[in-house]
Write a sequence for this structure.
């Protein structure tokens, strides 16, 4: 899984039938220092994430392991909304204290 921040949405009125009903979000990949890596993905939202939230997303075959995405043609899925990130005993991110999330 990768850390990311939701930065936008994708609206596609014409799409493969298997994608009907799925919410598509644009996610910037983040390093463990919460800096953007330059990589962006469009991910299916399986957990109700919102803009600016820090999330965990999976890609590849792991992206198809949720109830929402099972057997669907997706390559990235948001699987968790991050409440807190702690590294080496120090809190690096706390959603309740983050002014952007």
């Amino acid at each position: 899984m990768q850390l990311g921040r939701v930065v936008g949405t994708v609206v596609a009125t014409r799409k493969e039938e298997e994608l009907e009903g799925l919410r598509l979000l644009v996610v910037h990949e983040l390093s463990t220092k919460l800096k953007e890596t330059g990589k962006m993905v469009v991910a299916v939202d399986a957990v109700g994430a919102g803009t600016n939230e820090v999330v965990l997303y999976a890609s590849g075959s792991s992206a198809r392991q949720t109830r929402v995405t099972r057997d669907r043609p997706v390559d990235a899925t948001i699987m968790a909304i991050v409440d807190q990130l702690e590294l080496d005993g120090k809190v690096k991110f706390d959603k309740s204290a983050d002014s952007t999330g």
Summary: Residues 59 and 76 are 4 Å apart (CA to CA). Residues 2-11+22-94 form a domain with the OB fold (Dihydrolipoamide Acetyltransferase, E2P) fold (CATH 2.40.50.220). The beta strands are 2-10, 24-30, 36-45, 54-59, 76-81, 84-87, 90-94. The chain has a mean pLDDT of 93.
